[in-house]
Amino acid sequence: KMPIVKSSFKALPIFRSGFISTVYSGLLRRLKIKQIRERITLRDGDFIDLDWSYSSTPSKSVIILFHGLEGHGQRPYITGAALHFNKNNSDAICVNFRCCSGELNRFYSSYHSGKTDDLEDIIQHVVSLNKYDSIFLKGISLGGNIVLKYLGDGSIVPPQVKAAMAVSVPCDLSGSAKKLHKFKNLPYHINFKWGLVQRLKLKQKKFPQAISKSQIRAIRTLNDFDEVYTSRAHGFENAQDYYKKCSSLQFLKTIQTPVLILNALNDSFLSEACYPYKDVDANPMLHLETPDRGGHVGFISRKGYYYNETRALEFFLECK
Fold first, then answer.
1. 241 FRET partner, CA 20 to 30 A, in 111, 267, 317, 319?
2. Residues ≥6 apart with Cβ < 8 Å to 315
3. pLDDT digit string, tens, across residues 31-54
4. What percent of the chain has pLDDT over 70?
């Protein structure tokens, strides 16, 4: 049993800084991918858009990729893995969470860090196609938290789901929220908040009775956003109640699917509790890799694909 994995990731000299590797990966990486969009209806009548890309030969395996906060299915940190898997005889689905595919969803609520019922619906849909023996899940950041929660919170995990990976995952949401409010994370904080508030303004036009313009104007921080919108729109008492109920940390002990967690030690978004050594020790299904560097989803390699993308394929092949 080797749950704590010694990482072979070595950051290139220019990317030793967590900040530089995070920003480069988020803003400067460019990839070309041909995707076909499929819209599926969820159990509550809302929709989600899935962006498919395929292996050049018929494949019995598929990777489902889940993006982070304010992401979507064309972000390079998602399409990079899709391309790598397509080249290695696996189909790929880049999920766009509700509201993230360029079109507002139907309801006032949207997506959040613990929304596992949507994952269940997506995976059920893929199972119902009767095409795949092996389904692999990979979540990045917020998407990673949802994947881990899904695997451990009693959701129905079909036998076709063979393994999963969570990258740069804030499995302690409250601790991560505190980190994001620190001065050194101000550029990210401003960027996330701006995008979320812009979308909330569109929602407000559609659902004026749910939230007022003055409530939106009062949002100064991400915590305010979770207090005013995320928690209330999704049935939580407040931001802390939302963080507490949706943190995947508490569900790690019940995971029955092989999982690899890859969290860099210089990821400025993660609190100490996001490196769950004890939980990994107690559950042989969990593997934890904590390289010194890599920032937040910044595992840049010399060869075209990132370390977290090649590592996912390697881990999933071991679990097949």
1. 267
2. 163, 165, 258, 260, 287
3. 999 999 999 999 999 999 999 999
4. 99
In one letter, which amino acid is 265?
L
Q: How far, CA to CA in Å, does 3 sit from each of 6, 84, 192, 277, 288? A: 9, 25, 33, 9, 6
Q: In this structure, what is the dihedral angle of CA atoms 181, 184, 186, 188, given to the nearest 10 degrees? A: -100
| Buried b / exposed e along 253-287 (16+ C-beta atoms within 10 A) | eebebbbbbbbbebbbbbbebbbbeebbeebebbb
Please state, in angstroms and as integers, the Cα–Cα distance from residue 305 to each residue in 25, 77, 85, 107, following that order: 11, 10, 11, 37
For the chain, the 3-state helix, strand and coil shares in percent, each to the nearest 5, are 40, 15, 40
Residue 250: CB partners within 8 Å, gap ≥ 6? none
Report the pLDDT value the prediction gives residue 10, as an integer from 0 to 100.
84
Please report, to the nearest 10 degrees, the dihedral formed by the alpha carbons of residues 150, 154, 159, 165 taken in order: 30
127's CB contacts (< 8 A; 6+ apart) are 135, 158, 160
Question: pLDDT for 147-201, tens place per residue?
Answer: 999 999 999 999 999 999 999 999 999 999 999 999 899 989 999 999 999 999 9
- Cα torsion angle, 21, 26, 32, 34, sign: positive
Residue type, position 209, single letter: Q
Residue 55, φ and ψ in degrees, nearest 5? -70, 155
Distances (CA, A) of 78 to 57, 75, 162, 303: 21, 5, 20, 17
C-alpha span between 154 and 131 (Å, rounded): 25
Share of the chain above pLDDT 90, in %: 86
Helix (H, G, I), strand (E, B) or coil at 147: helix
